[in-house]
Write a structure and sequence with these properties.
Bound molecules: flavin mononucleotide
Oligomer: single chain
Structural class: alpha/beta
Number of strands: 22
Helix content: 25-40%
CATH topology of the largest domain: Rossmann fold
CATH superfamily of the largest domain: CoaB-like
Shape: globular
CATH class of the largest domain: Alpha Beta
Number of domains: 2
Length: 408
């Protein structure tokens, strides 16, 4: 998707600069032309030689470089790019941008810029939480600058933990693709995706859940955004970063999920990848249930609403394409075909979540998937692939199907 795109990467002076070398490689792999500007602090962490070798271009470091100013000056550097990426965006660079300072090449390029800017902040959690950085981030967002990350987690400094880790190179690539996707095959469409498990409360501290990680649903939402769609992602509790550029609706239970789905309609396409609990506790205890001398508490179950069938059977405002997922441990295709008919949806993506599936690490929680696509026309067996690849293929298939419907 980045074929022929011209990207200017500004590398700031943070420990995460080493990840920017991988970012250059990932962007180049996808066909982008990458030019690099490095601050003088950045050169303490990675060398212009390494960045230049990976970008196959000279690296720009000096504002007062006579040769460069006559050749490709700071104005041309920004104007010749489709998008500017700042990674890592240091607290210092963000402060300079927010205040319009331009005393080195990186900040002068950013100030002279008229293109979209994507920042990948990276800093110590205390720096990120500092009111000055909060003000600068809010100002930059109000100025139209886009952000990817930072993520939460362990920092390079020993013992430090919290929000401030730079987004991973592939997350930054996904954000770049989403920003450049205007004109993609799903531009102008609203795609609704559900993802993750649901949690069905038993009492204030206990719940019924399942092993869904949300990886497949989140990958589908990200792929739809990269294809230019407006995406609403209704997600149960997961431990994943929000995909770039999607509208998040966080829910806990199946009933919350149905309400969020209905509130997000109308949509052109609805993809129900969440593993919604079939049953919930018939009644939720208002207080924590106590152990009672060996007597087991009664746990009566009741059925949850069927989100897929509810939306697929809507008379008014049914999305044009309703896609369900079927996770089965046996007779995968036959069950999925029956499910397609019963639920009234257009397509079913069926996967074998049994230990026999042959997918390393298992399908639930793992990074790979092997699916069958079941449509009115028949059954397609897709080869094993990463969840990101399955998502790309599904979105491409949806775009083709909608295009074909429209030309009918
Ligand atoms: C070892 C080390 C690691 C640093 N890591 C970061 C960082 O991750 N984020 C940050 O904002 N500043 C970090 N700094 C501070 C910046 O390098 C410093 O503010 C510098 O002036 C930034 O310059 P620049 O914004 O022009 O690149 C670090 C400094 C040192 C010495």
């Amino acid at each position: 998707m980045l074929q022929g795109k011209r990207l200017l990467l500004v590398i700031g002076g943070g420990i995460a600069a080493y990840k920017s070398l991988d970012l250059i490689r990932r962007l180049k792999e996808r066909g982008a032309a990458v030019r690099v500007v490095m601050t003088s602090a950045a050169q303490h962490f990675v060398t212009p030689l390494a960045a230049g070798a990976l970008s196959h271009d000279r690296v720009f470091t000096e504002l007062f470089d006579r040769e460069a100013e006559q050749d490709i000056g700071h104005i041309r550097l920004s104007r010749e790019a489709d998008l500017l990426i700042v990674a890592p965006a240091t607290a210092d660079l963000m402060a300079k941008m927010a205040h319009g300072l331009a005393d080195d090449l990186a900040s002068a390029v950013l100030l002279a810029n008229t293109r979209p800017i994507l920042l990948a902040p990276a800093m110590n959690p205390a720096m990120w939480a500092n009111p000055a950085t909060r003000r600068n981030a809010a100002q930059l967002a109000a100025d139209g600058v886009r952000f990817v990350g930072p993520n939460a987690g362990a920092m390079a400094e020993r013992g430090e933990d919290g929000a401030g880790r730079m987004a991973e190179p592939l997350e930054i690539v996904a954000a770049v693709e989403a920003l450049l996707a205007a004109g993609g095959p799903l531009t102008g469409r609203h795609v609704l995706v559900t993802s993750g498990p649901t949690h069905e409360p038993i009492d204030p501290v206990r719940y019924i859940a399942n092993r869904s990680s949300g990886k497949q649903g989140h990958a589908i939402a990200a792929a739809a955004a990269r294809a230019g769609a407006r995406v609403t992602l209704v997600s149960g509790p997961v431990n994943l970063p929000d995909p770039f550029g999607v509208e998040m609706r966080r829910v806990e239970s199946a009933r919350d999920m149905l309400a969020a789905v209905e509130a997000a309609l109308p949509a052109d396409i609805a993809i129900f990848a969440a593993a919604v609990a079939d049953w919930r506790a018939a009644s939720e205890a208002p207080e924590k249930m106590k152990k009672d001398g060996g007597a087991l508490p009664p746990l009566a179950l009741t059925e949850n609403p069927d989100i897929l069938a509810t939306i697929a059977h809507r008379q008014a405002g049914r999305p044009r394409l309703v896609i369900g997922f079927a996770a089965e441990t046996q007779n995968v295709v036959a069950y999925a075909q029956a499910k397609r008919a019963r639920k009234g949806c257009d397509w079913i993506v069926a996967n074998d979540v049994s230990a026999r599936s042959g997918i390393p690490g298992g399908v639930m929680g793992g990074d790979s998937n092997e699916v069958h696509l079941i449509t009115a026309e028949g059954v397609e067996a897709w080869p094993p692939a990463s969840k990101a690849e399955v998502a790309e293929r599904l979105i491409a298939r949806i775009a083709a199907a909608l295009g074909a419907k429209e030309s009918e």
